């Protein structure tokens, strides 16, 4: 059992979507023994994920509405998790938004919107749970970055998205140094082209075929491909893995 028989909870943000990485990650972490807390803007979707996870894996699961950009909302939601479930042992900062707008057309408001969700949201949730993890000398924090942050866009996200996801890489590396002595690991996962709602219906068959032809694995990734890596990083046994970025892109960006 990945939690050493010690009951622990994993918080996954932005996990309401039925075809999203967040929901698949919640399932993978539950299968590894974590109890699950889902934070999502869509309350019904969060509750649906929680019900599905609890029924399939026999763990406790809680779905809550929370705007990760709102400090008070994050504090209240985590407070509910702490009151209802075992101590938080893992956090997956999955909530995020993309923006395909060209840099010359990006408004300050659009730039701020992308950074608010991707960066501020990750900061607020991480800041709320990190101290408790350090006090308990156990924690697994994972940030969802993107291949766009490493190669400089070129998939769906424009400059704002790539810059925000790159900020998360620096965030994770620095935090890994600070929290490492307290038994808390901090890593990033950078997915490439994954079959989610973000890509659904947005690729012509010609462009899809051309993109797959450039991937050594010769396919688009599944959400489970990403979720399995996150679950691996969340294991107690992964205590010597920290400050790293794990690419899940089928070899489309090798560096």
From TrEMBL:
Occurrences of domain Ketoreductase (ranges): 10-192
UniProt keyword list: Oxidoreductase
Gene Ontology MF annotations: oxidoreductase activity, acting on the CH-OH group of donors, NAD or NADP as acceptor
PROSITE patterns in UniProt: ADH_SHORT
Keyword rRNA processing (UniProt): no
GO biological process terms held by the UniProt record: fatty acid elongation
InterPro entries: KR_dom (IPR057326), NAD(P)-bd_dom_sf (IPR036291), Sc_DH/Rdtase_CS (IPR020904), SDR_fam (IPR002347)
Domain of life per record: Bacteria
Pfam families linked to this entry: adh_short_C2
Family to which the UniProt record says this protein belongs: Belongs to the short-chain dehydrogenases/reductases (SDR) family.
The protein's name in its UniProt record: Short chain dehydrogenase/reductase family oxidoreductase
Source organism per UniProt: Streptomyces himastatinicus ATCC 53653
